[in-house]
Design goal:
By secondary structure, the chain is an alpha/beta fold. 34% of the residues lie in helices and 17% in strands. The chain has an 8-stranded mixed beta sheet, sandwiched between helices. Strands 3-4-2-5-6-1-7 form a 7-stranded parallel beta sheet, with helices on both faces. The chain has a two-stranded antiparallel ribbon with strand order 15-17. The longest helix has 15 residues. The protein is globular. The protein binds adenosine monophosphate (AMP).
Amino acid sequence: MPFSKLGLSLPIVSAVTELGYETPTPIQEKAIPVILKGKNLLAAAQTGTGKTAGFVLPILEILSRGETQRKKRVRALILAPTRELAAQVEKNAEQYAKNLPLTTLAMYGGKEIAAQKQRLIEGVDILVATPGRLLDMYAQRAVHFDEIEILVLDEADRMLDMGFIEDINKIIERLPVDRQNLLFSATLSDKIRMLAKTAVPNPVELSTADSQSKPEITQWLTTVDKDKKSALLSHLIIEQKWDQALIFLETKHGAAKLVEQLGKRGIPAESFHSGRSQAVREQLLEDFKSGALKYLVATGVASRGIDIEELTRVVNYDLPFPADDYIHRIGRTGRAGAKGEAITFLSKDDFKNLCMIESRLGHLIERRVIEGFEPRNPVPISVLNFKPKHLATKNSSSKSSSPKNRQPRSNAGRSENARSDGRSNDSRSRHGADKSRSDKPSVASNNDRSGRGSSPWDNVKPRSGR
Ligand code: AMP
């Protein structure tokens, strides 16, 4: 179906055609008509599915039919978790609105406040903001909410993970009651549904989970001892002739160290984290997008908002926590139908977290062994039917038990991946159901994650039978 059949007018259709969009992605095909009808929407759509155009295009259509805003007023408010995502969404909105007399503005911390205030004076049609900066501006009376017609919560699960719930509630309380509400989230977890109850009443619910727009990503992991990770990364870059890689790890310090280690092995890389200025981060992204920079080592802050077409590869140098972060990170590749590869370096301490991620995915991730980097301590195979206690108690009446005592699922319950051998040309490839399997998975301590609260795996229950 062409864009013109979705109820969008010519200026909008021309703008997306110029960008090379030929047909709407499935989320766009489903969401655009719903939004144009003025309905509230709750959509499960991962990054990379074209969700931004899915809400921005109909918003432009709606706003172009109405009146322009008054001073310091905003007509559509899009809340985003990070400055990178806010900047990216605003850039897309500006491109899509190029043939319309509608204005857009991104508002986030780290950007000069005076310039943002100045832009607000004339009023803005679409404001894309991070919650904290928006509340600051509201408190300073630089922006008023009384003309907001549409609210979008973009990557809502991420906003909750980042602790923005109070800010979001404060903002919502101050909005006009009569407005349209749209919520986009990679997953529709219980927390998201709680938020949706107040923020998005009586929504139409959409999901792209099984649609063809799902990014085509080959995921694999390799177990490696922590002290061998940087050597393994250099080995893979060189041996497999990687053209490009976005490499994620946990800390700024770790990122700087890895860049240094890669440099010593003749692999030029740059680090991307909150300690670098906004200007430097923007330049790094430009260089990475243009291909001038091949290897970017980023902390989680960069996992959203990086929109690089044809990014072929992301590497989880450290395994992200919580599980949603894994999904968001791998969503950096395989965007808009392109093929991508997501590689995870797994070490012994990551076992519980791996269980969580694979349970969320609903399947085991293919395991490959890279010769010369076999770990001293193999990581056991995950048990997929586990859920953290706080979620399991609602759904299951079975007795609590620790993963230490729990037997792995039988082969009958495993995914196809877990049963096949899947060798690759590049390395001896092996799925989980062989050597590294242990009958009693030993549960590694999660002490290294103590800064993030206690582990959700401290008490686990099996999910009720499906
Ligand atoms: P998003 O999921 O919104 O971050 O979009 C992911 C990427 O897909 C971005 O680079 C968009 O420019 C691109 N995109 C969005 N819609 C389409 C479309 N209909 N056809 C081709 N590319 C698209």
